[in-house]
Structure formats: C-alpha cells, structure tokens
Amino acid sequence: MMNDVFLRYPGGFERAVTFSYDDSDMSNIRLKELFDKYGAKCTFNLNSGFFTDEDFIGEHRYLKYSEAKKLFYNSGHEVAVHGYTHPFFDLLPDGMTAYEIVKDREILEELTKKPIHGMAFPNGPVNGDKAYPKHITDLLKSCGIYYARTTLRAEDFRLPEDWHRLKVTCHHTDPDLMELAKKFADTPVDRIPRLFYVWGHSFEFARNDSWDIMENLLLYLSKFNNIWYATNIEVYNYVSAYKSLQFDVKGTMAYNPSCMPVFVCKNGKTVKINPNETENLK
C-alpha cells in the first residue's frame, strides 16, 4: 500500500479546462455565447476604464458598463481584473499600480456583485521576458489578488506552482493548439491530474474572422464526458480546498475544513470528502 494521495477534480475527474480572455471588447458577447453553447467556462479579464460612455450612440469597440453587467452578471463565468487602464505595471510607481488594480476591482465588483480576486497582467513587462519582478507580484497580494495570469507557456498540463505568475498551456492561435488538446484529452492520466489552459483576446476572432478556431476546439472537447470546465478562480479555490485537507499521521484519514467537497485518489480509489467531515482513505 502506498501513502501517495492525488488531487481529483469535482466528480472525481482527472482533467480540467479553463479559458482566460482579455479586454473589454464587444466581441466578448459572441465569445461568451460560444462558451455557453458548449458548456465551457471562461474568465473574462476586463479593463473597466475602457468601458464606452453610456450616452454614446453608434457602433463601439468596448462594452458599456450596462452591457458588461447584462453579459456577465450571474453568467457562471468569472470577471477578473486587467488593470483599470491596461498599463505596463513595471513602468508605474507602486502606488499607481495598486490604484490600477484596486480601481478595476471596485468597479467590476459593483458590476458582478461578487468579490474579485483574480487578474491577468495587462501588456507584458517592458524587459520582454514576460516575467514580472517579485515586488510587483508581492504588491498584487496586498491588493487582494489571489492569482495573476501571465502569457508564459507551461511545459506540461500540471497545476501551477506559482499562482501569481500563472502560466498557460497555449494561445488559441498557437499552431499546436489542437495537438495539445488531443494530447490532453486522449492520453491516460497517471496519478497527476491535468489542466488545459487557453488564453487570448476575443477581438482576435473578430479581426481575423477566425471564430472557427474556438468552435472547433470546444466541439472536440465536448466529446469527452470526463472534463471539469471551470473558471480560473474556481480552479484556484478548489486547489486551495485540497491543500487545506488535514491528514492523520498514517495517511489513513482526511478531514476537510473547507466549504466545498474535495475529491482525492489513493491506491487507485477515488474518495469524496465533504465539508467538515473526515473520510477513511484505507
């Protein structure tokens, strides 16, 4: 008997898919419709400082506040921070960076009527290495940000180790998108659960008339009935609940102090541990 315990997603699933799309463009409307059509979930990272004025009449690139509220309130998708005015964080004094984060949080929390603790970095560091310095990621934590997505590609489908430098699997325009999707969905899972993470901008689909890229991806993934579709914050919260589990010294029992059920796998057996309950893992 081995004492290894592995995380399993809700329902005991071994695979999870999440999406992250940036900016406040009107094309988010069509993208959300696609996700809803296939039962997928997305995190929409919005710049509330770019919302179009409510009195504006005519075609407009960016959502109005009222349009964003209609689109995302109680939608099942996540709204997250992307910087109030989409600045380069590493060019700003820390106080201005904090303002960009907190101001965006404040407006988006009023829009969704939910606490917002996630974000995607706007632009990228001007040094070109795609990795923000530690003092900026520390600043995010003080602003109530639990995770922050970069555009760095992960080397595998493993869960992130650094949630404030969150890596992605790929951009939807990457040539190996479908190859990665098939590897993720087809290859048997050995112990460690998988996360497939796709990011981009909805305006890219509109600009390039490439909506078929997302439709084909979602159509392919929808063929599998063993995938957990989650927003970024749902993945973060679930992994946090898993990490909060309390085990006895022999690894035969686990207590769940969180508010959500958590699934684990031990010796090939999947066990559900309900909130405030202790389960036998023998």
Topology:
Elements: E1 6-8, E2 15-22, H1 28-38, E3 42-46, H2 65-72, E4 78-81, H3 94-112, E5 118-120, H4 134-142, E6 147-153, E7 166-168, E8 170-171, H5 177-186, E9 194-201, H6 202-208, H7 211-221, E10 227-229, H8 232-243, E11 246-247, E12 253-256, E13 262-266, E14 269-273, E15 277-280
Parallel strand pairs: 2-3, 2-9, 2-10, 3-4, 5-6, 6-7, 8-9
Antiparallel strand pairs: 1-13, 11-12, 12-15, 13-14
Commentary on this structure:
The protein is of the alpha/beta class and 282 residues long. It is built from eight helices and 15 strands. It has helices at residues 28-38, 65-72, 94-112, 134-142, 177-186, 202-208, 211-221, 232-243; strands spanning 6-8, 15-22, 42-46, 78-81, 118-120, 147-153, 166-168, 170-171, 194-201, 227-229, 246-247, 253-256, 262-266, 269-273, 277-280. Strands 2, 3, 4, 8, 9 and 10 form a six-stranded parallel β-sheet that branches. Strands 1-13-14 form a three-stranded antiparallel β-sheet. The protein has a three-stranded parallel β-sheet with strand order 5-6-7. The chain starts with 5 loop residues before the first strand and ends with a strand.
* Rg computed from alpha carbons, rounded to a whole number of angstroms: 20 Å
Helical proportion? 25-40%
Low-confidence stretches: none
Order of SSEs, N→C? Answer: EEHEHEHEHEEEHEHHEHEEEEE
- Give the N-to-C terminal Cα separation: 9 Å
Number of strands: 15
Taking all residues together, what is the mean pLDDT? 95
Number of helices: 8
Shape: globular
Strand content: 15-25%
Query: Main sheet, how many strands, which sense, barrel?
Result: 6 strands, parallel
Instruction: State the secondary-structure class.
Output: alpha/beta
